[in-house]
Specification:
Distance between the termini: 17 Å
CATH architecture of the largest domain: 3-Layer(aba) Sandwich
Radius of gyration: 22 Å
Structural class: alpha/beta
Strand order of the largest sheet: 11-10-12-15-13-14
Oligomer: single chain
Number of helices: 9
Number of domains: 2
Number of strands: 15
Helix content: 25-40%
CATH topology of the largest domain: Aminopeptidase
Shape: elongated
Bound molecules: zinc ion
Strand content: 25-35%
Length: 422
Amino acid sequence: MPVRALRWAFLGLLCAGAVSAAERPATPAPAPLPAAAAAPAEPADSYPVATDAALTGDDTRTRFVVALSRKIEVHAFTLADPYRVVLDVPQVTFRLPPSAGDSGRGLVKAFRFGLVMQGGSRLVLDVAKPVRIDEVSVTDAAAGAPARLILDLVPTDRESYLRKIAIDDKLVHAAPPRRAEPPADGGIPLVALDPGHGGIDTGTKAPNGEQEKDIVLDFAQRLRERIEKGGKYRVMMTRTDDTYVPLAERVRMARNAGASLFVSIHADSLPRKEGDAQGATVYTLSEKASDPEAEQLAEQENRSDVIAGVDLKTEPDDVAGILIDLAQRETKTFSMQFAQRVLTDMKSVTRLHRNPLKSAGFRVLRAPDVPSVLVELGYVSNKQDLKSLLSDTWRDRTADAIAQAIGGYFATHVAGPRTGAN
Ligand code: ZN
């Protein structure tokens, strides 16, 4: 199921940012390429490798060049609010310096790169102002020189920028209809575990380079084992590898599979200038944030789609329209009861934030009919928390506590799967 869902998600991403005729390559990516005579020898099953990425020029013309082991296809398009240029390519192995993309030059403020699905990678450039893609091409490797992806950007005005996107949008094809998943089997409740971030979206980073996306994936896998151990509950994961999944897609996956509970796993950080904070926090959904810090965190977590180059305007938020109804009210109550249970069980094994139960407008908690919480395990910016987050013992102990809370929650609620499709 996840594979198909991801595939649709990615097709959705591609459709959301269709390429204009001028920018569309002659053949659609990721079609297999004929072996270029001059390309370095590579095993047939390996991915092309990006070995360098550089920005040159100034804010009248900025060139972005990526050195590659062989020629690949590229789809380029732009997104507004914030202004971004997105390059979709077949799966690439990135061997770039760790700091690549952290700083910009000319029209480009920064860039990111990574996997968005099996078989597909993406580069996202944050641009300082509206730009026009003057050229995008990939040259062959030749005479010992690598293949090169070249992107030339020139400034334009906002009106032209938006008009261009509107024209591109006309080429968008409707996403294929979703097939309903089979109903949850055997009456065994299904728990959706959602490790935050992934692929191109690394989440927060610890001073020692540890990334949130890796910490939370490992934690979620440990939690999964514990939940499934007794045979009383089933688990579905929104991701099981280092792949990016859009926020709304995570919600859709859980609802389509008939999940009875949704647990999103994250780790927080605080910029040094804002002091120090530590401990775990559990969040539920609210339109109005419980405090300014919670609001800021939700904004930061909701940026996941911006980071990955998703067009927020066209990303279907199919749950927004049905937010306010009775089911929602019941879901809210259940979410709150579950959140309190998680905190009670976590308290005995780990440090909690001084104000550990909060709420804000997290996009990933918006399923109207699946009780949902987001657990921030701790702060990677805090020395003690980071030590815990990286410790196997701590991860096991804390996963045990959350699994116990899940058992306790189901024991006091009707433990059947949700009835009725979405
Ligand atoms: Zn996060």
